[in-house]
């Protein structure tokens, strides 16, 4: 039995297979509409996340299965002091697969060790959120046709953003990927990523402070939010914040085929005037997330649907 | 694509068609049991309302579809600052139709503008609650056989009750409808309804302060709650409150075929001793609400089930 | 129409039938996979209980049915002052059967009186929790092959534990059942159970203060939690608490075929080192709870599935 804890749990080959499956699901949804008939997913969300929870539930329903679970810790037995290990043994009697979101790093891993059903880490604190990475990869692959040969801008809070770190880790496995990191000095990419992940793998990258400076060369811009409380002082925040807001003017500097991605929810780091730009892909990303999770569920449950129409 | 924002969004003809469909669903439920196979409704309840939420979910399940959503804002991504516009674009990737309850007037309209799936306003603050009106109309039509030629009493808080205002707006479109408004002076029907809706349409109405005075002439009595905090002073409240409590004694003054409706939940404005009176229709109303919502879902999704057994 | 309010609602013969059905479901799950197609259970949980709620939902989904409901009072219309009687009349329009958990003793009984669908008491305050008892009986019967001829140890808080009281009441109906009560003096089994249930039925029992003293003679050990706040003073708690913690050392004193049960969630009253002991049956118990609830739903809905493969 297999779990998904980290975006690197799958080899490049396995990932290729999973994303091929996601693409086939997109093309032939009716072929998969009953693949999980009679199966159940448990969505165990110890902290709320509507987007992620509903994406898993949608994925399972699209496959013909059904859903049990809870949307926040307050309505769970965690309040009665039950351990995650005991909860997953209970859930193993109820469901066929489980997606767990937990504020504590490592909780899904602890669960997986005692589980008799596949456990998917749906976000554990600031640690990992592998299905966001699968979503990002599937979106890029579907819209750009490849995961290598790309110059990728990552903008915003690059220090604390787990989504960004996971995506870098996943993308360095492909050929000829270059990064442009766009962030205030306080929120630069951590040195362990620069050293261990980028330098050791001989990955080309540069760091800039202003989004404008990066725009012209990007194949892809991955936006994230910059929270005010991350800045050292108010002055810096006021001076810098507009550098990290994507608007029409900045989009005018970008290539015709540059994609804009965002893990959502966005607050104001992408101006709504960008939404109608054909290069804005962050809402399509939500749809790709459903296909990626459908493929993941089928893969972990080892369910194979016959090829062909 | 069509949304439902206000009870007047449907013309009288369209409404007739929708209520005919609701009646057919009641008669032949099995004919519709798979009409929405593979479809999903999203119930987005930014404030809790068990009755309305479960009515929508029951309606979709009765049609063979399934449900995703949230029951309160605390477990939604609204807490992370996401706009309703962004949320609906996400939900458009997950579900086929959406019912939204929101404390803010106009929020479902804002959602509808960015949605790629039909949005149903399931109550927006003190503004509109169109599926309650559909429920009321379907109940009246089913039990009285008509929507015109009726003398309708409306009792309770007529000043702030959105349900009452919507029902008046919907009923004035039918022939020979007369109203009797029963309320304390503080909670009289607003002047814009008296002027714009009633006088301009030459609708007959009168206003009385005591339920007893109205009972004998009514074909239908629509009860609503009178909240203590709406009164100007304690003295008035004590003097008046019993006038607006429906009990067996007051029912004795009514016609044999007068119907009692109530949007529920009731607190004490209808005495439980009235519940077994055959004229009490407020629990049947809940059932009619399910049929009305089933018809609405089919209509907005443009799904047609073949006629005949 | 029939409800389930107390574990004694079923006669010994009816219970035998129900547990036979549960056993058949375990053996031939696919035979029952569509027994409740098109039916709905409403899970009305006025206080949270993930284990019990998800067990009912799993049971209904395993039978092909679907689920509506709420997981806590805060998202229910109870907050608006609606009575349980009114709520169940609403729910009767939505669902085919209902499981209700309520902090107030007797609330499910009040609901049952006004309901037009079967109501299952899923726990009412400190009063009854009959499906836990069904679960316990089904677990014992499945793993020991019988409900009579057993020496049963009950350990922990025997004064306030409703689970324990219900189980005693249910087991005294079988032949040659003996009890060993293991608890601190403060938390002894109540005198009305000693007098009315045990002595009047000529049931053999003894009371001991230490788990070690009871272990060697037991066929079955039913563990429950001892809460610190139940003790009269801190000194007693410190002196006694380890007597009621089951660990490997105490298990070494028990018979080879002694079963350990626990209603869960456990906190620390069973050491995790016991989990892998083949005699530990508390996680299997969760699974048996699903079968018992499936059998209960079918029984109350009077649905019969043909015998044979």
TrEMBL record, chains A, B, C:
One GO BP on record is: 'de novo' UMP biosynthetic process
Aspartate/ornithine carbamoyltransferase Asp/Orn-binding domain location: 149-299
Annotated keywords: Pyrimidine biosynthesis, Transferase
Residues annotated to bind L-aspartate: 80, 162, 225
Coiled coil location: none
Aspartate/ornithine carbamoyltransferase carbamoyl-P binding domain span:
2-141
State the function annotated in the UniProt record.
Catalyzes the condensation of carbamoyl phosphate and aspartate to form carbamoyl aspartate and inorganic phosphate, the committed step in the de novo pyrimidine nucleotide biosynthesis pathway.
Please report the name of this protein according to its UniProt entry: Aspartate carbamoyltransferase
Q: Which organism's genome codes for this protein?
A: Diplocloster agilis
Its lineage reads: Bacteria, Bacillati, Bacillota, Clostridia, Lachnospirales
């Amino acid at each position: 039995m297999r779990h998904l804890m980290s975006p690197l749990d799958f080899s490049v080959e396995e990932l290729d297979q999973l994303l091929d499956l996601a693409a086939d699901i997109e093309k032939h949804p009716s072929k998969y509409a009953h693949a999980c008939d009679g199966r159940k997913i448990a969505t165990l969300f110890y902290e709320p996340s509507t987007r992620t929870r509903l994406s898993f539930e949608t994925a399972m329903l699209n496959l013909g299965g059904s859903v049990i679970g809870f949307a926040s810790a307050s309505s769970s037995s965690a309040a009665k002091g039950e351990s995650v290990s005991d909860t997953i043994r209970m859930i193993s009697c109820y469901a066929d697969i489980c997606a767990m979101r937990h504020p504590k790093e490592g909780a899904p891993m602890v669960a997986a060790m005692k589980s008799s059903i596949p456990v998917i880490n749906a976000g554990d604190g600031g640690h990992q959120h592998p299905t966001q990475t699968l979503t990002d990869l599937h979106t890029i692959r579907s819209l750009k046709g490849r995961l290598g040969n790309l110059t990728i801008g990552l903008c915003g809070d690059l220090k604390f953003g787990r989504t960004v770190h996971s995506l870098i880790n996943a993308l360095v496995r492909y050929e000829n990927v270059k990064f442009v990191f766009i962030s205030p000095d306080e929120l630069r990419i951590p040195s362990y990523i620069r050293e261990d992940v980028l330098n050791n793998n001989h990955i080309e990258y540069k760091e800039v402070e202003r989004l404008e400076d990066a725009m012209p060369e990007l194949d892809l811009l991955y936006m994230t939010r910059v929270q005010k409380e991350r800045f050292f002082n108010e002055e810096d925040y006021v001076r810098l914040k507009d550098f990290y807001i994507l608007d029409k003017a900045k989009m005018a500097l970008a290539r015709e085929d540059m994609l804009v991605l965002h893990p959502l929810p966005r607050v104001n780091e992408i101006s709504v005037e960008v939404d109608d730009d054909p290069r804005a892909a962050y809402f399509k990303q939500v749809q790709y997330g459903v296909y990626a999770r459908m493929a993941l569920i089928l893969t972990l449950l080892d369910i194979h649907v016959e090829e062909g129409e």
